[in-house]
Specification:
The chain is α+β, with helices and mostly antiparallel strands and 372 residues long. It is built from nine helices and 20 strands. Helix 2 crosses helix 3, helix 2 runs parallel beside helix 4 and helix 3 packs across helix 4. The C terminus is likely disordered. The protein binds adenosine-5'-triphosphate (ATP). Adenosine-5'-triphosphate binds next to strand 2 and helix 1.
């Protein structure tokens, strides 16, 4: 852990007229962590990133980097570097000059800044192209130059705004590996804004899920994926079915909930729940099995098959259960083809009670639909 690059965000808000772009956010990012901020368009990710970089000033609240209050510190003096979405390279300068530019502004001598720029280009494996101008590079190469240019100031924190969005799928996966490698070599904090769930899950030590200017959950990727805090996080991160029920009975270590179709579900203890209360819970799509509709059982839901998609490593079966959202099961390929289904069939999706996960947060917004 590197305390110099730890970030503490305390009660930070940013208002643009009546728009509360960021609303009283509290967040700690450990020094040397790879943090991914994710959320639908307009949720405040970029605004938060720009406030950490010093390109925006919070309307209220405090930002500390390495324990030092930088809320109103100048952009260049707080130990951060921002890599822009469009790379913002100078078209008429070669790569060495592009990378060295910020040192020139700081008055570093020609020889020193050239050496430093070449060292950075080497780090991103572009030294052999040092004399080219940006238009002679591929998109992936331009992005590496932008990275080298951000890193030349020796930042404690590197901020990346949608760094992979302009690249094609192949390059995106390649650069993802590259970013992770760089971050662990440098040992500094990376904060990476993304729209893409798999990107956040693959890269981050800490995933920060935002919605409407607030953080709904900040935790490890496994925690966010397996134990989403709210219906919103469960839906946004994907791979889950979100259900709602009314508390039927509260027993020791066990809460029984009745869902819309009268089925009983066995949940762990719901703190403070009383009979009649509404409870949201989720079950992962890959924890579900299908049986015939006739077998009424606990921890299940009846539905009609509306779509079947073979996905190579699993089969995705979508059910209409009378709810607004489809209920989806990811089935083992061998098991599925031993008893294939057809669209229009009435089935029952069932799962082990241990897979019922309680969603505590009240945020029921659907955010942006998950890609798949
Ligand atoms: P995207 O993923 O589309 O980039 P985002 O999550 O990064 O979105 P922000 O750019 O932080 O969202 O914007 C948050 C909210 O603040 C939006 O409603 C946006 O319209 C508003 N906003 C951002 N910058 C300004 C500005 N300079 N003036 C007025 N409103 C702004």
């Amino acid at each position: 852990m590197n305390d110099q690059s730890r970030i503490d965000i305390r009660k930070v808000s940013k208002l643009y007229g009546p728009v509360r772009a960021v609303n009283s956010v509290d967040l700690t990012i450990e020094g040397g962590a790879y943090c991914c901020m994710i959320g639908p368009s307009g949720c405040g990710k970029t605004t938060l990133l720009r406030m950490i970089a010093g390109h925006e000033t919070p309307s209220s609240g405090t930002i500390l980097i390495g324990g030092e209050d930088v809320t109103r510190a100048r952009t260049g003096s707080r130990g951060t570097a921002l890599m822009f979405q469009n790379y913002a390279l100078f078209p008429h300068l070669n790569l060495t000059e592009n990378v060295a530019f910020s040192l020139k502004v700081r008055g570093v001598s020609t020889a020193e800044r050239r050496d430093k720029a070449r060292e950075m280009l080497d780090r991103v494996q572009l030294l052999h192209l040092a004399e080219r101008v940006p238009s002679e590079l591929s998109g992936g190469q331009q992005q590496r130059v932008a990275l080298a240019r951000a890193l030349i100031t020796n930042p404690k924190v590197l901020l990346l705004d949608e760094p992979l969005s302009a690249l094609d799928e192949f390059l995106r996966l390649k650069m993802r590996v590259e970013l992770k490698r760089l971050q662990s070599e440098l040992g500094i904090t990376f904060i990476h804004v993304t729209h893409t769930q798999p990107e956040a899950i693959a890269l981050a030590d800490q995933v920060v899920v935002m919605d409407h200017g607030v953080i709904d959950q900040a935790a490890s990727p496994r925690e966010v994926y397996n134990h989403p805090y709210s219906p919103y996080v469960a839906r946004f991160m994907g791979g889950q079915n979100v259900l709602t029920g009314k508390v039927e009975s509260v027993e020791r270590g066990h809460t029984v909930v009745r869902s819309h179709d009268g089925t009983m579900h066995d949940l762990p203890t719901v703190e403070g729940a009383k009979p009649g209360d509404t409870v949201n819970f989720s079950v992962r799509r890959d924890r579900v099995d299908l049986s015939s509709d006739a077998e009424v059982m606990r921890n299940s839901i009846a539905g009609t098959v509306v779509n079947i998609e073979y996905q190579g490593t699993f089969v995705k079966v979508a059910l209409d259960t009378g709810l607004r959202e489809e209920f989806v099961a990811y089935l083992d390929v061998d098991k599925y083809f031993a008893a294939p289904r057809e669209v229009g069939m009435k089935v029952r999706a069932a799962w082990d009670a241990k897979y019922n996960h309680i969603l505590l947060g009240q945020n029921n917004s659907t955010g942006t639909p998950h890609e798949d």
